Amino acid sequence: MQKIKVGVIGATGSVGQRFVQLLADHPWFELSAIAASERSAGKPYREVCNWFLSAQMPEKAGEMIVQPITTDLDCRLVFSAIPGTIAKEHEENFARAGYGVLSNVSVHRYDEDMPLVTTEVNPEHLEILAHQRKSRGWSTGFIVTNSNCSAMPLTITLAPLHKAFGIKTVMAHTMQAISGAGYKGVSSAAILDNVIPFIRTEEEKMPKESRKMLGTYNNNRIVAAEFTMSAHCNRVATLDGHMETISVAFHDKPKNEEAILKLWREWNPLPQQLNLPSAPKPPIVVRMEPDRPQTRLDRDNGKGMAVTVGRLRPCEVLDYKYVLLSHNTIRGAAGASVLNAEYMLAQGML
Amino acid sequence: MQKIKVGVIGATGSVGQRFVQLLADHPWFELSAIAASERSAGKPYREVCNWFLSAQMPEKAGEMIVQPITTDLDCRLVFSAIPGTIAKEHEENFARAGYGVLSNVSVHRYDEDMPLVTTEVNPEHLEILAHQRKSRGWSTGFIVTNSNCSAMPLTITLAPLHKAFGIKTVMAHTMQAISGAGYKGVSSAAILDNVIPFIRTEEEKMPKESRKMLGTYNNNRIVAAEFTMSAHCNRVATLDGHMETISVAFHDKPKNEEAILKLWREWNPLPQQLNLPSAPKPPIVVRMEPDRPQTRLDRDNGKGMAVTVGRLRPCEVLDYKYVLLSHNTIRGAAGASVLNAEYMLAQGML
Amino acid sequence: MQKIKVGVIGATGSVGQRFVQLLADHPWFELSAIAASERSAGKPYREVCNWFLSAQMPEKAGEMIVQPITTDLDCRLVFSAIPGTIAKEHEENFARAGYGVLSNVSVHRYDEDMPLVTTEVNPEHLEILAHQRKSRGWSTGFIVTNSNCSAMPLTITLAPLHKAFGIKTVMAHTMQAISGAGYKGVSSAAILDNVIPFIRTEEEKMPKESRKMLGTYNNNRIVAAEFTMSAHCNRVATLDGHMETISVAFHDKPKNEEAILKLWREWNPLPQQLNLPSAPKPPIVVRMEPDRPQTRLDRDNGKGMAVTVGRLRPCEVLDYKYVLLSHNTIRGAAGASVLNAEYMLAQGML
Amino acid sequence: MQKIKVGVIGATGSVGQRFVQLLADHPWFELSAIAASERSAGKPYREVCNWFLSAQMPEKAGEMIVQPITTDLDCRLVFSAIPGTIAKEHEENFARAGYGVLSNVSVHRYDEDMPLVTTEVNPEHLEILAHQRKSRGWSTGFIVTNSNCSAMPLTITLAPLHKAFGIKTVMAHTMQAISGAGYKGVSSAAILDNVIPFIRTEEEKMPKESRKMLGTYNNNRIVAAEFTMSAHCNRVATLDGHMETISVAFHDKPKNEEAILKLWREWNPLPQQLNLPSAPKPPIVVRMEPDRPQTRLDRDNGKGMAVTVGRLRPCEVLDYKYVLLSHNTIRGAAGASVLNAEYMLAQGML
Predict the structure, then answer these.
(1) What's this model's pTM, rounded to 2 decimal places?
(2) How many CB pairs under 8 A join A and D?
(3) Fold of B151-328
């Protein structure tokens, strides 16, 4: 099989580096373009990128010359991790020019014709792309978004339960890693020996995006799921990995914890059935120890693509409560985009 | 006024060090005895104590000879921070021998004749001491306990609201500092770059102790407040200061945030009215910035005795949600015991 | 005594915040002007400053309106913590306009007519100011600089030894706190679970500034001390406090450790003799425990103005080796400038 | 090839866990026995081991039943990571009983008949084993030790230089990770926001072991290399990876940095020539960026077995200075033992 050429725009930041890492040696995609701000353009990626991932920068990527973010990149798909302020224009330009855009940026997520997809959860929402192209006058191009890094793992753990029992109410409390704010996002003076109980717009995004992803697609429309949700979002001094403690109530309360555990353990959604290269098996790792998951010990499960859950127990206020953990820049960002692209390719949507 | 002689048992641990710090230069109490395990006894405190507080060890305390934990300590009050496994016997021995015991240990907290007191919240529960003495056959001795370090600041923020609106439901999520587990409690290998979503027995203690402290005393009985509560307790890599995100529902829902803020700001309970030396003024510090309180920036408010609250806003699931922060080994432990003792002295109960 | 009006330029950064903290309630100085970049000017300090010191922002300072950095500030002395790129012009403008400038910035430190002063070490270098004024055509204005935060505590520990034994060779290794790089200087993604063995220009500054401060003033000239020195400078994940391990050889090797300890303990330089408000007593704190000083436990000694030394022992390569620790933004920056100003005032130089 | 059965004694600690990780899926060795203290014996490894490595515990190892440390383990080689206090007796018992012992413990390192081997540096010292067996009356058993985790990477970087230029003087300054002290070794209360400039006996071990490893074997004797060395050892808040800043003087000073870099780059010692499974290629990774190596970014180079060097430059006091970094529980401990065993097997010494 001929590999499909892909590019990364916004390649020097926290999520951009993950894209480069995941795509540099991908079995289906060939990383053929790296683009970033004008300031970086024209120089080797190695020189302009403040690489901070523990794994070494891929050799080949390091030697690639960074290009400006223009629509003459030599690739078919564009993975986007550019700043929100410039994303709307750039991403639409690429789609208009015929590129497929897989975006981590929040700016388009809530558009009516925009799929917001976690591949395991709502791949059928991709069908709206025909409508998107038509309504926006795009020929082969498109934009597919993925959700923010705290909503995505929550939605993954809720998806099989929602189908079986119907989610009624969710209380979420997050303890999010600093890489979620980008490389320069959190000063060490701000977070060492500290917790910051506030992440701008995160508490609004989490319920909104979770409802859209758990919603239904029908006839060119995505109808968000209806459930009540409240989020408390916090920044803690971890490098990678968002921890969330969740309480949830159902329309049909499951008889016991085992009913939930069974669904999590046996869940086998499409990406896993299709053996997509980035699909973690299993998608949900269930730990039964009282003190798991833990951020540093479980964030790399499934090469950073699995969501790890634990501590399922009755909740005195809602029905059940549990803890989840996932890697915010792999599962919650770059890896999710890549998985979406793999799915589209496998399904003949590219 | 002649100072009252006091001793600290379990003086070398995390809470014990705070006791020594708070009592070494106290206006009403004279630190006249330091006791710890047999291993430490007979040596100067300086030599056996792995002091890790940022403020230097008080000179005088450093030179005091550590004594074994026996009931011939030269003091009238004993502040207890000994391990739970040996606390029951030792504390009762002291009370039987006529000492007043102010205890941080959980072992006696739930006894029917035992006051569990946060001075600002439920000082009237101390009246049960007459019953305690009678039922246990103690003459002048007594045991007064204070609550665990996550229940106490929560209860302080709930107390004025409970009186006005009636607490119906509480969801609490904590992000607790490592000093709460004692000096050796959390290995650095366990917590660096990590979150541990589990603290043994903490999720049981929080609701149980909050209900008891918000309960009513009547006729030799303490009747716990009745409200539903669920807690998620987590350990994070901060040195001192427990952060909690709280959602709460009331029997009479307050009209707006201002109704709550006003109660917090104007709350002036007995310790403050009595100008007790350790009573913070105000007891609740209200911050209006979107990103406060923060652990490192607010834990020392009121010399570590104030509880700082912020981010009060509507909760989509319960009525309102907010964030609180307090110093776990001062407000949440040693300082609380000292304040109880000050109150008892001021009220002629010693 | 009428307080002298002082201003802080560059007031929002890491060192600027320390200036505000130290000057807000100073017995001799009145903080009458706060200045920062155009972006901040016109707004209350509280709004534009990302305050991150553990002690709360002084109330009065929070309400002061930030001014642009122009030479019509209402004050007589200007404490400077502005970025190096703009410091040369601004500081000279102030001096030309008649202000006394006390600068933390490195740009002027190596000028021939510039005193680089650690008050305890080389206050006599201030005599060069007459020459400075004359050669630059300034009337009442002047610039006095203080050294970088790793050279200063080293020089303090060397000063009494240099006089007695003559410094011949120094090997210095530093482990420097993140606040030394300014509030935004070190991203948390860069330093969590990490050591960075490189601080730009630090290894050049340390020997150069140490030699100048230990040099002699004579006849309008400062002649640097002559000794060989090598520095390895590292950034570690501590908030405040630079730790340094030092090996040193002397022209006249002291007989034993006691000869050195005695000099450190008995050192009583001019600021201490004059009882200057910011002069720590003693200036050098000697700890004899095998594992002291420690960054978090000793940085606040002498209100952050003392240098703590420990572990003095023979060095197999040079003569002796030891460890030193000092607070980098108090002793090593803002506090040092303030002490210089206090000295000048006490000596009638203002 | 039939795999050789090996056991790990002291399997639950920091180094013991690394042994289990490295041996669970080794191409030449079969992990057939896990032994630990009486308290753990009889239970599955998963239950008694507080596993804290980021990679998950190997499935098979988790199910193995922990055995007491007795000489009836079903294996031929024993990898030892037991506490120093009991190591002498146990290790000698195993050797006497015919086992080959590869030890990380310091207790035997300085015995005259004991090889202290870093495989790349001094594999010829293993020839002393014939003498060891004879003098101790052991038949097939033996003890081979490897050095402490700060001496080993230093020696690796010095070895090719020593041969070419002759080491004359070394100044070493370390910034060591907490895993070097074992899982419970460093309390989080001791190290968060702190540097501890003291590691018991480390400053004595570093020179002593470096000299022995760089020494010569001749006629049943190991003669230590003669050079002057001084070490400053510090504990910092990193999980894994010891950073060292080194100054060195030579008998024949190399003309320039390039002469040193060339030796490091081209060094190809026996383990690499033999393609041993754990031999990193290259053994020394040279980085030319000004700010490398860094602890978190470079500790996993060569699967944790490579030593990364950088910042080579002239030293004002000695000849040259540089920075090195290596993984303390892989390269500096468990991995080094495994590599020694691989070498012995490949050379027919088992």
Answers:
(1) 0.96
(2) 21
(3) Dihydrodipicolinate Reductase; domain 2 (3.30.360)
